[in-house]
Structure formats: C-alpha cells, structure tokens
Design a protein that fits this description.
This protein is an alpha/beta fold and 282 residues long. 39% of the residues lie in helices and 20% in strands. It has a 6-stranded parallel beta sheet, with helices on both faces. Helix 6 packs across helix 7 and helix 8 packs antiparallel against helix 9. It starts with a strand and ends with a strand. Homodimer.
Length: 282
C-alpha cells in the first residue's frame, strides 16, 4: 500500500493507472475507520483494479460549535486497517494541501439539503460537495462508495455526480450494524454505557414503523408519531428529527408510496446519532 500526502503525486499516479486502463474504486472517509468503512472497502476491492481510500477531516463541513477539533483521529490505526483491506493507495492530505488559498469558486448545493440533517447544519453539504468535487478531480474514480447510514449524503452525492456530469458510478452500500441493530459510527465512542444500550432503540423504532407500513399504514404523520413515541419512551435523549420523505429527492409526501426514506436523528449527551431505512412501497 502506498500512502500519499500531496495532490501532485496523487494525480501523477492516477494518470498513469488510468492510461494503462485500470478501473479505480474510491472510498472517501474522514478516518477513524470502523467496520462500516471496511465494508465499503471490501466491496470496492472486489469490483475494481485499484482501490483508493482518502482520509481527510474536512473543515468545510463542520459548523460553528461542531466537533472538528474533537473528531476522533488515529492515522496509524487507520493505516493498518486500510492495509488489511487491500487498499492500494491511501490519500491523506493536510488541510493546507487541500485548501492552500481562500476559494474563488464555491460549490453550493441547491436541493436535498434543507431537510433532515441539512436543516440544522447550514452549509454542511456545501462543504461535503466542495471536498468531493476536489477529490473526484484528484482521484478520477470510476466508482465511488458511500454507506447508506448517511442516506442524505448519498442523495446529495447523487445530485453532484449527475449535475456536474462526473463519469463516476455511485455505489450506495447498506448500513453496517452492531448485533443489536445500532448503526456503526465513529461517534458511538462518545456514548455512555447507558446511552449505548438505549441507542439500539433508534433502529428498533424504525423496524416497528416498517412493520406497521407493511401491514398497510400509508399516513406519513402516523408513522412519524409512532417512531417519536418509541424513542421518547426508551431513550433519555433529545429527538432532532423524525422524517418520512421520497428518496432520493427528499421531498414531502402525502401518502407512503414509491421509494421512501424514514430517517431519525437523536442527540445524546455527547453524540448525535442518525439512522434510517429506505423502503419501496407499491
């Protein structure tokens, strides 16, 4: 595995690989790799000639008061995991390397952002879209892999690729979960033992809603209230949102039909957790 810190070296190597006809699979991350990231790497490893993983904690996607400085980092640990997963190139640029000067052009996401997490994190997805635009130009991947745990991010990336005509195939990968259903996340380390036990109820609430929908309930508000009630009853935490929307458009719906997402965000004392399920209702 080759670890690269500079854009220039990355572009030189990628140009050579592309010239020789190699297919590039790309997994962008902010590091502190866990089983969810490893699942993305495993799939990308199977489907491409070359696997590139980036580790970059992107300051543009952190808002005021968010945990940029406290975001978990352990590059040596990440390097070992990446090597174990057969990563060919680990791209780990500094902030100065990625943003050497103040920007003259800004990427702004116009749609799919004023709901779910985007509603309480203004500018977050602009930061995501900006760094991905840069990474896509640097890495030139044929396929890019994202976990559906952050389904809004997948929807935004889908729009970015389509609108800017990137010749990239987006591969959404199902959420990786603990045995009790909790979605794996770097932020789970912030949960107290009691909160960790309660956190499994987010997924239990989503599964309860899925069962009720499959039994015929088509009123979105009934489902939202059902999930809120379950979380309030089982967790000492604050609900940020429970929303049911079309997917990937993320538009409001009057009845549950077609492809929809049921998403939740809950704030525990030191961690904000998100989860979702995506359903296809005919």
């Amino acid at each position: 595995m080759k670890a690269i810190q500079t854009i220039r070296e990355m572009q030189q190597i990628i140009t050579s690989l592309k010239t020789s006809g190699k297919k590039i699979g790309f997994v962008p991350t902010m590091g502190y790799l866990h089983e969810g990231h490893q699942t993305l790497m495993k799939q990308a490893r199977k489907e491409n000639d070359v696997l590139v993983v980036s580790i970059f904690v992107n300051p543009l996607q952190f808002g005021v008061g968010e945990d940029l400085d406290g975001y978990p980092r352990d590059f040596e640990r990440d390097r070992v995991i990446a090597e174990q997963e057969g990563v060919d190139i680990l791209f780990n640029p500094t902030v100065k390397e990625m943003y050497p000067n103040s920007s003259t052009v800004k990427v702004m996401v116009q749609d799919r952002t004023d709901v779910l997490c985007g509603k309480s994190r203004p500018g977050h997805f602009d930061g995501v879209a900006t760094v991905l635009t840069k990474l896509f130009h640097i890495v030139l991947p044929d396929r890019v892999y994202f976990g559906l745990k952050d389904a809004q991010q997948v929807a935004v990336v889908d729009g970015l690729i389509q609108d800017f005509n990137f010749p990239i195939e987006l591969i959404p990968v199902p959420t990786v979960r603990e045995k009790d259903g909790l979605a794996k996340s770097s932020r789970n380390v912030y949960l107290s033992p009691l909160e960790r036990d309660q956190a499994k109820e987010l997924y239990q609430g989503l599964q309860l809603a899925k069962t009720v929908i499959e039994q015929g309930e088509r009123n979105p508000e009934e489902i939202v209230q059902l999930v809120k009630g379950h979380i309030n009853k089982t967790c000492k935490a604050t609900i940020d949102y429970v929303e049911l929307r079309s997917y990937p458009q993320l538009r409001p719906i009057e009845t549950i039909v077609g492809k929809v997402i049921l998403a939740v965000a809950v704030k525990f004392s030191k961690a904000r957790l998100i989860d979702n399920i995506i359903l296809e209702i005919v």
